[in-house]
Amino acid sequence: MDKNRSTTLCDQYPDLHVLFDFFTDNPQKVMPSDVNSPKKDSPFYDPYWEAVRTMQESEHFMEGILLRSVDCKPRYPYVHYIVYKSNVVSTTAAAPGCQLKLSLDVKKRPHDSLLNNGRVAIPTCAELDAGFMEILKSRGSYRELHTFVDRHTPLLPKRPSNPNTAYILSAFMTSGNLDNLDKTWSYWSGADYIVENIPASLKLERITFHKILNNFTNGTGSAICGVGESANGMDRCGFSYVLLCELGEALADLNRAREFIDHLKFRQCGVSSLYVIDHFF
After folding, report:
1. What is the number of structural domains in the chain?
2. For residue 157, is the peptide bond before it cis, meaning its omega torsion is within 30 degrees of 0?
3. Gap between the Cα atoms of 222 and 237, Å rounded
4. Per-residue model confidence as pLDDT tens digits over 7-21
């Protein structure tokens, strides 16, 4: 690994905050729930794209992807992957990373919540159309702890250029002891297993490990996140970690990719699924 090149890239890599929305149905199918809303009278009003435009209005918004699962009966068929940047620039030096060519160890970055200090305008669930609340089961803001990329994969943007790209997304719930889990993340998250066993034909290009910053509320003080159902149908407890693996040629050999994710599910303690890109925004 070229240490000078890695350090330069680290200096240029912004501090990123990632929003994950876990949906039980396609969010584009949500219809306006407030019949008295003045926006509903407009023939061009669409709750989904109205929420997207609200996100894009933030000066910190970078890019967003709606991911669609290709698994049979996935727990979360659709997931938003939305990337924001803060005005803090990382100067963390590079660290060796698995068997990929270049890595960024970003666990020492400032991780204050941009949501708490108001520097990033991410719409809370209370600001979204109420129709989303029926299918939005988990929402959280995360920071990147570790990013590992292939030498030929750009750090930014996250948006891939290869139409055959798919993702393995694994989300993990915890009961505490996060400091110790941070140290052993590559083992229990399955990252080591993926790097060592993924078929070369699927072309593993990027692994990013995320840690929770904030869970969101539904406007009544109830958190929306991962485990256990509350009275209104929303999950009460959040995903503490999310592992996202980018496979550059997964759609060129989809059967093999599905076979691999099935093996991974037997090994992992998290919620895992294979996702393709529905659309960018």
Report:
1. 1
2. yes
3. 10
4. 445 555 778 889 999
For residue 236, the tally of other CB atoms under 10 A from its CB is 14
Overall pTM > 0.85: no
Write the burial class of residue 202 (CB in 10 Å: 0-12 exposed, 13-18 middle, 19+ buried). Answer: buried
Q: Which residue has the tokens 């590559």?
A: 186
Residue tagged 């759609």 (tokens): 251
Taking alpha carbons only, the member of 149, 140, 169, 143 closest to residue 243 is: 169
Contact by Cβ (8 Å): 81, 122: no
Which of 174, 177, 116, 186 has the alpha carbon at shortest distance from 145? 186
Question: Tens digit of pLDDT for each residue in 64-112?
Answer: 999 999 999 999 999 999 999 865 434 332 333 333 334 444 433 333 3
Find how far residue 248's CA is from the centre of its chain: 17
Residue 169 domain boundaries? 3-280
Q: Cα-flanking dihedrals φ and ψ of residue 220, to 5°?
A: -110, 5
